[in-house]
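Service request form, structural biology core

Requester: graduate student, group of Dr. S.
Request type: structure prediction, single chain
Budget code: on file
Notes: please return the result as structure tokens.

Sequence provided:
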Amino acid sequence: QVQLVESGGGLVQAGGSLRLSCAASGRSFSVLTMAWFRQAPGKEREFVAGISWYGQQTNLTDFVKGRFTISRDNAKNSVYLQMESLKPEDTAVYYCAARPLGGGYVPAVSSKYTIWGQGTQVTVSS
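Core staff response, request fulfilled:
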């Protein structure tokens, strides 16, 4: 069974940057499609970004394009979310998720991901 552990969250001022990391353990990381979701208080969990198992395909939601970048290092069993130009509306708990199927399909629906981390809080002050 794969376990995911996120890190890198924190408090940052608007316009600042953060880099989230997600470390996976338990099975071959390279066969996992990985994604980041986020959930703000009172809101549904929403897709942020995803990356295919060898990184050849990425999928970013419109509201983060040009500001966030997703990447992975299979040698380190890790996926990253580099967040730039952060806004107060980016404040949320960010979750790492895994889908133990490969290929170039990177779904933006939470139900397609079966493994989840515990989340890391990102707070952007104005």
